[in-house]
Amino acid sequence: MDNILVIDDDLGIQKQLKWSFSGYDVIFAADRSSAIAQLRRFEPKVITLDLGLPPDPSNATEGLATLEEILALAPQTKVIVVTGNNDKINALKAVSLGAYDFYQKPIDSDTIQILVSRAIKLFNLEMENRHLAKVAPSMDKIIGQSEGLLAASRKAERISQTDISTLLLGESGTGKEVFARSIHEHSLRKNKAFVAINCASIPENLLESELFGYEKGAFTGANKTTLGKIETAQNGTLFLDEIGDMPISLQAKMLRFLQERVIERIGGRSEIAVNIRVICATHRDLLSMVADQTFREDLFYRVSEISIIIPPLRERDNDVVLLAKTFLVQYNNEFKTKLKGFSEPAIKAMKQHKWPGNIRELQNKLKSAVIMAEGSHIQAKDLGLSVQREGPIIDTLNLREVREYAESRAIRNAFLVAEHNMSKTAELLGVTRPTLYSLIEKYHLEDAKTGR
Question: Among residues 341, 343, 277, 286, which one has the least CA distance to residue 309?
Answer without folding.
Answer: 286
